[in-house]
Sequence to fold (352 residues):
Amino acid sequence: MKTSAIILVGGEGTRLRPLTLDLPKPVVPVLDRPFLKFQLDLLRKASITDIVLCVAFRPERIRAVLGDGHADSVQLTYVLEETPLGTGGAVKNAEGALGERVVVMNGDVLADMDLGAILKMHGETRAAATIVLHPVDNPSAYGLVETDQTGRVTRFVEKPKPEEITTNRINAGLYVLETRTLSLMPKGVPYSIERGYFPALIASGERVQAFTHEGYWIDIGTHQKYLQVHLDLLSGRFPHEIQASRRGSGYAHETAVIDPAAVLEGHFYVGPGCQVGAGSRIEDGSALISNVRVQGATIRQSVVWGDTEIGGGSLVEGALLSNRVRVGRHCHVGRGSALGDGVVISDHSRTS
Ligand code: GDD
Ligand code: MG
Fold:
């Protein structure tokens, strides 16, 4: 049986703005690579190399980063929605490019799932669909999934209200679907897989199976989670071979220039072409993605993208800085700050 995969990459990434105003969420940098490469790894490990990317928002930016997939040993097919069709409409739109069975993934989830085991359970239970579940503290931002004792899904409630929260297990954003069941979806109109297809499939009496993933799982779609994923990769909570050399308990790329009078501590990443000048401090949870110049400033628990410059005596903490940002001298870029492309912060300024 032919199993293909779909990755849903057409969302606008509104909660990650301004980082995603120009760059779609699936290809934002996470340490040393565009995010989607982690998902390609997961699929390739399960020998799934025939992958459809359902694109709608800035498709050219995704194609520019991933091309035809050759460099990642996969074959990528791009299926475009002229206007976004939602999570279900996107899958329906790609129906013609699929085999008999399809793995569908949200394009913003990082997890160490055992896809081989998920596919095995799907086959053994003869399910029409299998949904991967993950326990979280608060399901309200996710899709809540109820099951019976046999692991059969009995209810799917997207973004449940407080009074609807009956379990801590949520939709982890990865499904295996029998392609024939896409007949439940309308064609060419916006449609939600979570609000439409799953409730309809459950109501039809078909077997919808749950597979609980207890390991690492994160949706990178908010500022706080995007910072968190960097810390998790740097601290080894999610294993990943970072393309840089070890330096203390952090990593520095071989092309980074670090002054001996700079202090680097905790779990950090200094990427290609970065310059860290005398008197700078790069502290725990910080990632300088590429060509960042820190000239005697302190960076703490922050992610800083390319070609950005931070002046002497400044403190950047708990912040996200995108490309070509200029932070002057003696500034405080505080917790929760998120600076878009080309922002200039003049000397002695404070943000949040
Ligand atoms: N092609 C396409 N077209 N993709 C879309 C569209 C669309 O119109 N709308 C959203 N997507 C993609 C996004 O790019 C993202 O990769 C994925 O679908 C999920 O969208 P999000 O906007 O990130 O949804 P969410 O995080 O609020 O909720 C979803 O994920 C949770 C797990 O992280 C739901 O599936 C929840 O049920 C789930 O718990
Ligand atoms: Mg999401």
